């Protein structure tokens, strides 16, 4: 999970008190996992927007 | 001598109950009848001006108002009856005039700071007289934030005045209905800040009906359909995405109202005006412009964004939304007046009537407000949820926070950082870090004391910055700063800053010594 990658980074910084950088593998894992985790809720938001626009597009305000 | 272009009227403030009456008496002087239903916006505008403490009115005749001239050219010039092309303008001041001579009064008012309240343009159209109007918002005792506004310079007889407010206009439904009036208000408000077009109502109607026509465009009695509204906003240079607030076929309930407040507040707090589509139970659809919010220090219920419990079960936290304290919202309603409340519930238009909203979002902002909040909470939730902590002798520890998300210009963000009480290391970091022109900021504040946020008394303990020119799925945060109050189980006073390189995506964590809390951003009324 992407969260584990960033949580791991925070934990390392706290325990060492020094700067710490994600390795290339950790970085790839973070981006790939984050995409998996967030794509579903974001798609749900977008689907609701599409539905609402279709529902409302021909309704007048005056 | 030429005709009198300026006339001075003294307002008798000894009898405040007669203020509206005395202001309305000025109208016949410029040929306006009164009493028409469509004079409601003007009457409410005059009530607003009365509350601002007006003591002097300066009438300027034969004003070449660009919006009315455009309306005239598009419509009234085709009438057989000679409709004047020029308007009158009423300028309002808080100082009593020391003379009846207009130039002496103009010079007198120019020498008194903040005496200028603003102006109302009177169209030569008796049924819809109120043209371009810019007035100060009310200075109320209760916290009250009109955030979609700008400073406008006004010249009178060689003197310069300024007014900080949100432009207002009554619809002239010959050339445009409520949507055109509200779009006009938003475009005027944003013109200087965003550098985009500021169409006249006639041009807005023309842009809206360019590709999709549902009836006569002039006179435009039928209003606009939503698809035409979005086209007009796109033509003006903004990104017209529609935010659903509730379904058309169902009434608002507690949950839809809570979600609507959360969605709207993000844009209001960003100073982005929003077109709100209201559909009251037994009435026609109507559009108004959302421009600000009030503050309820004691809300009945807090709106939750997320709950986080760490994997060891040693602590848990609830994260509430800053919109919990927002009541009422403030709107400009072209058919009833400027700076009016839109409460959650009540007799007139309310938040329950709101079905959808369209923010005037810059086209370079690809992540919208709701997506920004989801992304930032996902990042925060993920980190905190997976941090290992040791058991606490006192059992499960609970700590609660409030998040507030807004879009901010890079320069405003840096200015706020510079003037804040942030730790110096964080200040230096933000001042030097490459940032895009606009950023989504999610502030993390302690729940304790958040009700005193308008006084700047709240404690901010971190923030997440997100790049709006990206997709939520890309994880394009810019910074995650977690102060020691968020990492409370660690018992130290160090925080952590996670930096993400915006160009190559490298992610680096750094310790922040002496990570004390600091004040949130507070936008004071000017």
User: What is the alpha-carbon Rg of chain A in Å?
Assistant: 20 Å
Unreliable stretches of chain A:
none
Total of DSSP H or I helical runs spanning 4+ residues of chain B: 11
Q: What distance separates the N and C termini of chain B?
A: 40 Å
**DSSP E strands of chain B, number:** 23
Helix content range of chain A = over 70%
Biggest interface and its residues per chain?
A-B, 43 and 61 residues
Looking at the chains present, what oligomeric state does this protein adopt? heterodimer
Q: β content of chain A, as a range?
A: 5-15%
Count of DSSP strands of chain A: 2
Instruction: Give the integer mean of the pLDDT values of chain B.
Output: 89
Strand order of the largest sheet of chain B: 13-14-18-19-20-21-22-23
Q: Strand pairing plus helix content of chain A: what structural class?
A: mainly alpha
Low-confidence stretches of chain B: none
Tell me about the biggest sheet of chain B?
8 strands, mixed
How helical, in percent, are the residues of chain B? 10-25%
Dominant shape of chain A = elongated
Q: What general form of chain B does the structure show? A: globular
Counting helices, strands and paired strands, the structural category of chain B is: alpha+beta
Instruction: Give the N-terminus to C-terminus distance of chain A in angstroms.
Output: 50 Å
Largest sheet data of chain A: none
Description of the structure:
The complex is a heterodimer of chains A (62) and B (526). Chain A has 62 residues and is mainly alpha-helical. Chain A contains two helices and two strands. Chain A has one domain (2-56). Chain A has helices spanning 2-16, 24-56; strands spanning 20-21, 60-61. In chain A, α1 (2-16) packs across α2. Chain A is elongated. Chain B is an alpha+beta fold and 526 residues long. Among the domains of chain B are: 6-166, no CATH class; 369-512, no CATH class. Chain B has eleven helices and 23 strands. Chain B has helices spanning 19-24, 40-51, 66-74, 102-110, 178-194, 201-208, 226-235, 254-269, 369-385, 410-418, 424-432; strands at residues 6-10, 56-63, 87-93, 116-122, 130-135, 144-146, 150-156, 159-165, 224-225, 243-244, 274-278, 286-294, 304-309, 315-321, 329-333, 337-342, 354-359, 397-409, 438-446, 460-466, 477-482, 495-500, 507-512. In chain B, a hairpin with a 2-residue loop joins β7 (150-156) and β8. In chain B, α5 (178-194) packs across α6. The model of chain B has no long low-confidence stretch (mean pLDDT 89). At the A-B interface, α1, β1, α2 and β2 of A face β9, α7, β10, α9 and β23 of B.
């Amino acid at each position: 999970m992407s969260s584990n990658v960033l949580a791991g980074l925070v934990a390392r910084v706290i325990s060492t008190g020094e700067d710490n950088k994600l390795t290339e593998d950790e970085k790839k894992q973070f981006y790939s996992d984050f995409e998996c985790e967030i794509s579903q809720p974001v798609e749900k938001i977008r689907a609701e927007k599409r539905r609402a626009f279709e529902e409302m597009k021909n309704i007048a305000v005056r | 001598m030429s005709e009198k272009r300026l006339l001075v009227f003294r307002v008798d403030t000894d009898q405040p109950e007669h203020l509206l009456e005395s202001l309305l008496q000025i109208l016949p002087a410029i040929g306006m009848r009164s009493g028409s239903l469509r004079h409601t916006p003007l009457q409410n505008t005059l009530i607003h001006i009365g509350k601002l403490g007006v003591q002097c009115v300066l009438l300027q005749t034969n004003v070449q108002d660009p919006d009315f001239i455009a309306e005239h050219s598009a419509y009234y010039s085709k009438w057989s009856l000679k409709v004047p092309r020029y308007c009158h303008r009423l300028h309002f001041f808080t100082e009593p005039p020391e003379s009846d001579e207009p130039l002496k009064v103009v010079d007198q008012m120019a020498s008194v700071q903040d005496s200028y309240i603003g102006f109302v343009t009177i169209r030569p159209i008796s049924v819809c007289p109120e043209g371009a109007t810019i007035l100060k918002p009310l200075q109320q005792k209760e916290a009250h934030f009109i955030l979609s506004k700008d400073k406008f310079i006004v010249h009178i007889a060689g003197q310069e005045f300024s007014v900080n407010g949100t432009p207002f206009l009554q619809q002239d439904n010959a050339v445009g209905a409520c949507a055109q009036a509200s779009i006009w208000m938003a475009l005027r408000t944003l013109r200087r800040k965003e550098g985009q077009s500021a169409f006249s109502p006639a041009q807005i109607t023309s842009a809206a009906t360019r590709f999709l026509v549902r009836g006569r465009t002039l006179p435009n009695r039928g209003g606009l359909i939503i698809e035409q509204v979005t086209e007009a906003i796109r033509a003006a240079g903004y990104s017209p995405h529609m935010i659903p607030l509730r379904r058309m076929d169902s009434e608002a309930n507690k949950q839809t109202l809570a979600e609507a407040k959360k969605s709207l507040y993000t844009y209001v707090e960003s100073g982005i005006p929003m077109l709100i589509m209201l559909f009251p139970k037994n009435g026609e659809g109507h559009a108004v412009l959302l421009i600000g919010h009030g503050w309820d220090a004691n809300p009945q219920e807090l709106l939750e964004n997320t709950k986080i419990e760490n994997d060891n079960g040693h602590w848990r936290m609830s994260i509430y939304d800053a919109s919990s304290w927002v009541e009422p919202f403030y709107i400009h309603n072209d058919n009833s007046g400027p700076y009016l409340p839109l409460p959650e519930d009540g007799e007139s238009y309310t938040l329950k009537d709101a079905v959808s909203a369209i923010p005037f979002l810059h086209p370079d902002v690809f992540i919208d407000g709701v997506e920004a909040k989801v992304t930032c909470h996902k990042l925060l939730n993920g980190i905190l949820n997976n941090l290992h902590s040791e058991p606490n002798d006192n059992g499960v520890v609970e700590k609660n926070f409030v998040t507030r998300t807004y879009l901010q210009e890079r320069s405003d963000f840096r200015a706020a950082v510079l003037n804040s009480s942030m730790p110096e290391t964080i200040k230096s970091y933000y001042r030097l870090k490459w940032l895009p022109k606009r950023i989504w900021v999610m502030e993390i504040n302690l729940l304790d004391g958040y009700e005193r946020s308008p006084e700047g008394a709240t404690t901010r303990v971190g923030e997440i910055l997100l790049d709006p020119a990206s997709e939520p799925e890309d994880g394009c945060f810019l910074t995650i700063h977690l102060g020691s109050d968020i990492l409370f189980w660690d018992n130290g006073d160090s925080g952590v800053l996670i930096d993400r390189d915006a160009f190559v995506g490298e992610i680096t964590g750094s310790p922040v010594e002496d990570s004390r809390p600091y004040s949130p951003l507070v936008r004071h009324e000017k």
